[in-house]
């Protein structure tokens, strides 16, 4: 280890509090210090090159150092760094809003900018709540969300989340919501089996709406993949079924596409797989290609119109952020969309998805792999102590982290969710690198589960 790396490691240990990290353990480890990126590779201060197997926490879309995004940012920096969006606009924010509406599901017409996914979720919740106040239905103040759902770590987003491991400690700070069961086929909370279940988990959403729709403002969930919940993949038809229930009971549908948007599932947005349009759609993570913080809450004209009125009617949406619509972030997002068009990214992605789906079938032959699931290049490999009973490994065994540790030795960086090994590479990954990612993960699982 070079003196420079040692000094940086010391700065890190002495001054940084890392997110979602048990610092007592972390402080006893030598950190990987990333200095450069190239394509799907991360390069540390010692010159080691690692495949970025989880897209730097699900944000990198095409890879690192993408010429089109680099250029867009540099050109914007030479013009202006920031200008408020409160009451005036800027070039990049205006151009990006137009492009987003052009690629979003038909019927979504207005873009409200924020800085991260959780903030955009907060916007969606507040919009849905205030919409019904303006519509003369003040009792509609509640939300329906799913168990195992994750929408960020701000308090509103946590309130509609469903992962107790992350959020139980904050329960006294949260507002109450109605919780519907997760669409978790491998561990079905209703003890049913797809497809004979006829998507019974969606029917549970209807039961809540049937009884409480007069007080429910919106249903919020992640379409097709509950990412932080363990890469849980919904059965086909779930989104369309819930869309129908929301229409039937006059309830807003909010789809959180923060993790699933921008090609992750094989389409630009996951809801496109079932050809539906939500009333509110939340975007983030890959919006700038993994370069800069930016998110958006995209709504229908009907939602937007409810906030129009005279100044003294106070129908204004009193919400905003200092950096809403930041021109440099918006320029990066425009560069991201340019790459999609220029490289035919979604069309080329289909071959990669087919390759991945063939290759990951091999994992099913491993003794301690209970389930392998994917939608597009979002993959969850669930490890179990006993496959027959689906008994999970005890958390203190840190089995997912054992796998990640072995993969790191082979210069592949992945980050598990408990016993679920997650693969979510940039969708710009080439098949040769995708093969290496899959092969290393396979060997790491085999070693971690057999060498106990």
Describe this structure as you would to a colleague.
By secondary structure, the protein is α/β, with parallel strands linked by helices. It is built from 15 helices and 17 strands. A 7-stranded mixed beta sheet has the order 4-12-11-10-7-5-6, with helices on both faces. The protein has a 4-stranded mixed beta sheet with strand order 1-2-3-16. Strands 13, 14, 15 and 17 form a 4-stranded antiparallel beta sheet that branches. α9 runs parallel beside α10 and α13 runs parallel beside α15. It starts with a helix and ends with a helix. The model has no long low-confidence stretch (mean pLDDT 97).
Helix/strand layout:
Blueprint: H1 3-15, H2 23-26, E1 34-38, E2 41-44, E3 49-52, H3 55-58, H4 67-77, H5 91-103, E4 108-114, H6 117-134, E5 142-146, H7 155-159, H8 164-167, E6 178-180, H9 200-212, E7 216-221, E8 225-226, E9 232-233, H10 238-248, E10 252-256, E11 280-283, E12 295-300, H11 301-305, H12 327-342, H13 345-359, E13 369-375, E14 378-386, E15 391-392, H14 399-409, E16 412-413, E17 420-423, H15 431-450
Parallel strand pairs: 3-16, 5-6, 5-7, 7-10, 10-11
Antiparallel strand pairs: 1-2, 2-3, 4-12, 8-9, 11-12, 13-14, 14-15, 14-17
Describe this protein with a few key phrases.
2 domains, 452 residues, Aspartate Aminotransferase, domain 1, Aspartate Aminotransferase, domain 2, 17 strands, four-stranded mixed β-sheet
What is the number of strand segments? 17
Beta-strand share of residues = 15-25%
Count of the domains: 2
Computed over alpha carbons, the radius of gyration is 22 Å
CATH superfamily of the largest domain: Type I PLP-dependent aspartate aminotransferase-like (Major domain)
Based on secondary structure, the structural category is alpha/beta
* Lateral arrangement of strands in the main beta sheet: 4-12-11-10-7-5-6
Query: What composes the largest sheet?
Result: 7 strands, mixed
> At the first level of CATH, what is the class of the largest domain?
Alpha Beta
Corresponding CATH architecture of the largest domain: 3-Layer(aba) Sandwich
How many helices in DSSP terms? 15
- End-to-end Cα distance: 30 Å
Helix content: 25-40%
Task: Please mark out the parts with pLDDT under 50 across 5 or more consecutive residues, or reply none.
Answer: none
Mean model confidence by pLDDT: 97
Apparent shape = globular
């Amino acid at each position: 280890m070079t003196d420079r790396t040692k000094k940086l490691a010391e700065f890190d240990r002495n001054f940084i509090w890392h997110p979602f990290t048990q610092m007592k353990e972390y402080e006893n480890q030598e950190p990987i210090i990333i200095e450069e990126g190239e394509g799907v590779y991360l390069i540390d201060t010692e010159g080691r090159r690692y495949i970025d197997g989880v897209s730097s926490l699900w944000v990198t879309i095409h890879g690192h150092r993408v010429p089109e995004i680099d250029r867009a940012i540099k050109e914007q920096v030479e013009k202006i760094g920031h200008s408020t969006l409160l009451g005036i606009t800027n070039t990049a924010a205006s151009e990006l809003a137009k492009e987003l509406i052009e690629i979003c599901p038909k019927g979504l017409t207005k873009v409200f900018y924020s800085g991260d996914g959780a903030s955009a979720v907060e916007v969606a919740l507040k919009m849905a709540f205030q919409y019904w106040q303006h519509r003369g239905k003040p009792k509609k103040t509640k939300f329906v969300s799913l168990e195992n759902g994750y929408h960020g770590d701000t308090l509103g987003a946590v309130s509609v989340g469903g992962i107790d491991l992350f959020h139980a400690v904050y329960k006294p700070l949260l507002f109450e919501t109605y919780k519907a069961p997760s669409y978790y086929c491998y561990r079905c909370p209703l003890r049913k089996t797809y497809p004979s279940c006829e998507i019974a988990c969606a029917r549970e959403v209807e039961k809540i709406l049937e009884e409480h729709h007069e007080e429910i403002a919106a249903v919020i969930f992640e379409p097709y993949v509950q990412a932080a919940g363990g890469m849980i993949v919904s059965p086909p038809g779930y989104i369309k079924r819930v869309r129908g229930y929301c229409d039937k009971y006059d309830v807003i549908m909010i789809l959180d596409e923060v993790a699933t948007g921008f090609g992750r599932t094989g389409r630009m947005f996951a809801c496109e797989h079932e050809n539906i349009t939500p009333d509110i759609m939340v975007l983030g993570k890959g919006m700038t290609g993994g370069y800069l913080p930016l998110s958006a809450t995209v709504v229908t004209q009907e939602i937007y119109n409810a906030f129009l009125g005279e100044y003294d009617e106070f129908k204004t949406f009193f919400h905003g952020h200092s950096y809403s619509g930041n021109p440099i972030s918006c320029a990066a997002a425009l560069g991201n969309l340019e790459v999609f068009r220029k490289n035919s990214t979604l069309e080329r992605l289909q071959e990669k998805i087919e390759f991945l789906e063939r290759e990951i079938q091999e994992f099913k032959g491993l003794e301690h792999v209970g389930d392998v699931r994917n939608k597009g290049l979002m993959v969850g490999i669930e490890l179990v102590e006993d496959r027959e009973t689906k008994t999970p490994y005890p958390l203190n065994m840190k089995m997912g982290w054992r796998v990640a540790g072995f993969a790191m030795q082979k210069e592949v960086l992945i980050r598990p969710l408990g016993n679920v090994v997650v693969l979510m590479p940039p969708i710009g990954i080439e098949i040769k690198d995708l093969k290496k990612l899959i092969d290393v993960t396979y060997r790491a699982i085999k070693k971690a589960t057999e060498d106990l």
